[in-house]
Specification:
Order of helices and strands of chain A: HHEHHEEHEHEEHEHEHEHHHHEHEEEHH
Strand content of chain A: 15-25%
Distance between the termini of chain A: 29 Å
Strand order of the largest sheet of chain A: 2-3-7-4-6-5
Largest sheet of chain B: 13 strands, antiparallel
Mean pLDDT of chain B: 79
CATH architecture of chain B: Clam
Distance between the termini of chain B: 30 Å
Number of strands of chain B: 13
Low-confidence stretches of chain A: none
Largest sheet of chain A: 6 strands, mixed, barrel
Radius of gyration of chain A: 32 Å
Helix content of chain A: 40-55%
CATH superfamily of chain B: Lipoprotein localisation LolA/LolB/LppX
Number of domains of chain B: 1
Mean pLDDT of chain A: 83
Shape of chain A: elongated
Oligomer: heterodimer
Largest interface: A-B, 23 and 26 residues
Structural class of chain A: alpha+beta
Strand order of the largest sheet of chain B: 6-5-4-3-2-1-13-12-11-10-9-8-7
């Protein structure tokens, strides 16, 4: 292709600036939507994924095979020390967190004239060291606030219901593994906010304290395994299943543990395609209209070019090139503007709650399957949206310009010049 | 949970054993002389009254059998009417002093180990009471067979030998049970077995009544065995050691301060 074709095409676009600007706006807007919306969704799903594979669910979970159905105290994993060592020695395992869950009644522990109303809550017995790591259930606590030695941590919701502050006592009344009643007093060392419902309205106890209280020595109800990457969960689960003592247990990847959330994340791929489709349509409409109009207007000129000996092939190339330039410039403008939007909002965050018109205090998070997913979204730039836009627009511009280009090339020079 | 009606055969009514004057007991014929069949309303009335008294003091042994453990509790119970009851565990030492106070629909537990009293919230009403197969709800429900259930005579039963009376919860009755099948003795004076069906029509638990004894002039079963359907190798037995009907039980017995007093 001769360079002159390119420069002619470029100059042709400048001849009707308003029309070109309109076409560019349509394409650029489309690309802004692709970049910004994909960025927003990427940010949202990223935070969802972090919450899901974060503190509560981990990458792989292990339970007694009937646990998920019944959640009864006596559906435990036995010989915890042994099992834990075996899992910990698997390649790629970053942390192994055993947990124990028991429903209890809890009341403020100080003596009072009138007996306090008890609240139902869940005691979560945790390995304090494992859960104090970055992604653990109690990851943000200072060393002296951590549970253990009859100190417990309670969630903000439970603390508010009981009117309890750190340093005070709570009375915990529950049932041991044989359902016989047990009761004891514990000191609240900290009140924590958590993305996990049962922590938010529950009690976090150290595993040894919980095992002793509920008569579950060397036992737990759940083991959460975290590898180096959530994408490795399938291989990790497979490796755990091969441990002989795990043959009776139920081993699940995070996708199997919360299939609804996992499928929500899969939806994102389709959503991306929908927005690319919108861009496709915007670009097609803009380019088709522009090219039809400009070739129609230039019938005389095209006839002249043909009469002067320029081949029909060169004409087609010229017109298609005009369309491609239009598309690419539009995508470039849209990408730049879209990127600016994403970069700005990725610092400030987008508050979905305010957008949806809900009261901010009530609904900063939405809770699903006991996990609180933040509605303050920090968009994330996804480079693939540039590629999507580029491919979509180039394709549409070539396709939509072909028809006017070919019909122009087929013109009879003598007739065309007379119009 | 509040306002749930109670069936007289639940634990407390056993503790709430309330007396009718002896003349009232048996004043209505239980068996129709012509047909030889039980007269349902009279039988239900009789059952309703069997354990009723204005007050009672009883000693009860509760044997809870679990797959891994068996525990025997000895307790003393004070009742006035069907609304007030105090149950204090006396043995074993580990649980001694643990007490439950019922006033109307409210339940409080006193836990000597932490010397605290807590009120049982509605959400825990279906939880086990003292590790037994009875629930907290069993303690507070209150109902009358005649008022809450529609009874039909289902015929004779072979094992155990007696009459089967089907009780269906009347429409609008809030409760756990859709249907209770009673097996009564041939003379319709005593219950032998009760089968409880839940709201989905599934058999949920069976209560067997054994060892008829005379307490204070009343012939009643002294040994009840409650077997839940959904828990294997598990049952709760309630054995009356003694019952003193119409004993002198002052109103002050059923107070929170009394609940916390070591007995």
């Amino acid at each position: 292709m001769r360079l002159s074709t390119l420069s002619i095409a470029w100059r042709n676009l400048g001849r009707n600036r308003r029309r070109t600007a309109l076409a560019l706006t349509a394409i650029a807007l489309g690309q802004i939507i692709v970049v910004a919306v994909n960025g927003m969704m990427a940010g949202m799903f990223d935070s969802m994924l972090k919450t899901i594979t974060g503190p509560m669910i981990g990458h792989v979970q292990i339970h007694h095979k009937d646990w998920r159905e019944d959640r009864a105290v006596d559906l435990y994993i036995d010989k915890l020390t042994e099992v834990r060592a075996a899992i910990g020695s698997l390649p790629g395992v970053k942390s192994v967190s055993p947990r124990l869950f028991t429903a209890v009644l809890v009341a403020p522990g100080e003596q009072s004239e009138k007996p306090a109303d008890a609240e139902a809550a869940i005691v979560v017995g945790v390995d304090v060291n494992a859960e104090s790591l970055d992604k653990g259930l109690i990851g943000n606590l200072q060393a002296n606030e951590r549970p253990g030695g009859r100190n417990v941590v309670i969630g903000t919701v439970l603390a508010r219901r009981l009117g309890i502050t750190p340093g005070r006592l709570i009375a915990v009344i529950g049932q041991d593994v044989d359902e016989f009643p047990v009761s004891d007093l514990f000191t609240v060392s900290a009140v924590i906010k958590s993305s996990v419902d049962i922590v938010e309205s529950g009690i976090v106890m150290s595993l040894p304290d919980a095992q002793a209280f509920f008569n579950l020595p060397d036992k737990c109800h759940e083991i959460v395994v975290r590898g180096s990457d959530y994408r490795m969960s399938v291989a990790l689960a497979e490796a755990v299943r091969k441990i002989p003592s795990m043959s009776e247990a139920e081993v699940l990847t995070w996708k199997e543990a919360v299939p609804e959330l996992a499928s929500m994340i899969d939806i994102k791929g389709y959503m991306d395609l929908i927005f690319v489709g919108i861009l496709f349509l915007a670009a097609a409409a803009g380019i088709a209209n522009t090219m039809m109009m400009s070739t129609f207007e230039r019938t005389r000129e095209i006839g002249m070019l043909l009469a002067l000996g320029s081949g029909p092939g060169r004409l087609v190339r010229m017109i298609v090139l005009e369309a491609v330039i239009l598309g690419l410039v539009g995508v470039a403008i849209g990408s730049v503007l879209g990127t600016i939007i994403v970069l700005i909002t990725s610092h400030t965050g987008i508050n979905y709650v305010a957008i949806a018109g809900m009261s901010t205090k009530e609904a900063m998070d939405f809770s699903y399957k006991g996990l609180n997913i933040s509605l303050l979204i920090y968009p994330k730039l996804e480079y693939r949206s540039f590629i999507y836009g580029l491919v979509a627009v180039t394709l549409t511009s070539v396709l939509t310009a072909l028809w006017p280009a070919v019909s122009a090339a087929r013109l009879e020079p003598a007739e065309a010049m007379r119009t | 949970m509040i306002g749930r009606k109670k069936h007289w055969l639940s634990v407390l009514s056993f503790m709430a054993l309330v007396s009718i004057c002896p003349s009232a007991l048996g004043s209505e014929p239980l068996i129709d002389n012509k047909t030889g069949k039980p007269i349902i309303p009279n039988v239900l009335n009789y059952l309703d009254d069997l354990f009723r008294s204005s007050s009672s003091i009883s000693v009860i042994r509760l044997v809870v059998t679990k797959p891994r453990a068996t525990r025997t509790l000895e307790m003393k119970a004070w009742t006035r009417g069907t609304e007030e009851a105090l149950i204090v565990i006396e043995k074993p030492a580990r649980d001694a002093g643990t007490a439950t106070l019922k006033v109307g629909d409210n339940l409080w537990n006193f836990l000597p180990k932490i010397s605290r009293t807590i009120r049982i919230p509605p959400s825990m009403m279906l939880s086990s009471w003292m590790g037994s197969d009875f629930t907290n709800d069993d303690l507070v429900r209150e109902s009358s067979l005649l008022k809450d259930f529609t009874a039909t005579l289902k015929g004779r039963s072979k094992d155990p030998d007696g009459w089967i009376i089907e009780l269906r919860a009347k429409e609008g009755l809030v409760g756990l049970w859709e249907k209770i099948d009673y097996t009564m003795t041939t003379d319709a004076t005593l219950p032998l077995r009760a089968k409880y069906y839940d709201r989905k029509g599934r058999l949920a638990r069976t209560m067997d009544f054994k060892d008829v004894k005379v307490f204070d002039g009343r012939r009643i079963p002294s040994h009840m065995v409650l077997t839940p359907e959904d828990k294997k190798e598990q049952k709760t037995e309630m054995i009356y050691v003694s019952i003193d009907f119409d004993a002198d039980v002052p109103e002050s017995t059923f107070s929170l301060s009394q609940l916390e007093k070591a007995r």
